[in-house]
């Protein structure tokens, strides 16, 4: 005869309720380098305004443009838009010389959300995350890995990590989650 045992405690841990880490689906990504005077031409071709301030994000038609430097943007879009972006940039080249490099396979993205998300990221990110406003993103480091950190909301972040560093970063995130769960 078998017995069934039931428990009154929750299946998810406190950190599980306070913290969520998930790998995001792949997307088309491009590194765009263009002189700021030519940025409006490329923005029009790509269907969004390229922001002029470092850390600023523009969104349109499911595409995002993040200003990483005075002449550098990260363009993210659904994978289905990849060919259209390449074609639009190619067509705009005569009017505005630029460099558009596809980097889609270079990075993996993690969504980190919940009331403990900022606490988790602070274990290996030297930036003052209180100064990163929702709707902004920055290039920074997580431990020794270069990352792009997006703040999607008060308790929601996205971490873009080079594929070669992803196992290291994910292991640190999991260790941090365990420490937060244990109250360390």
UniProtKB/TrEMBL annotation:
Protein name: Sarcosine oxidase subunit gamma
Family matches, as Pfam families: SoxG (PF04268)
Main EC class the enzyme belongs to: oxidoreductase
Oxidoreductase among keywords: yes
Ligase in keyword set: no
EC number: 1.5.3.1
Keywords: Oxidoreductase
GO terms assigned for molecular function: sarcosine oxidase activity
Protein source organism: Limimaricola variabilis
Gene3D superfamilies, alphabetized: Heterotetrameric sarcosine oxidase, Probable tRNA modification gtpase trme, domain 1
């Amino acid at each position: 005869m078998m017995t069934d045992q039931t428990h009154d405690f929750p299946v998810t841990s406190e950190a599980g309720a306070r913290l969520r880490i998930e790998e995001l689906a792949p997307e088309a990504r491009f590194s765009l380098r263009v002189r700021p005077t030519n940025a409006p031409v490329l923005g029009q071709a790509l269907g969004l305004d390229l922001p002029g301030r470092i850390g600023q994000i523009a969104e349109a038609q499911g595409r995002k443009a993040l200003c990483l430097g005075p002449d550098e943007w990260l363009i993210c879009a659904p994978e289905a838009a990849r060919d259209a972006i390449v074609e639009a940039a190619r067509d705009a080249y005569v009017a505005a010389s630029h460099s558009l490099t596809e980097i889609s396979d270079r990075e993996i993205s993690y969504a980190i959300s919940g009331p403990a998300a900022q606490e988790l990221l602070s274990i290996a990110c030297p930036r003052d995350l209180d100064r990163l406003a929702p709707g902004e993103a920055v290039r920074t480091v997580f431990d020794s890995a270069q990352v792009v950190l997006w703040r999607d909301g008060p308790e929601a972040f996205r971490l873009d990590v080079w594929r070669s560093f992803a196992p290291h970063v994910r292991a640190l995130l999991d260790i941090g989650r365990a420490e937060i769960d244990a109250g360390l």
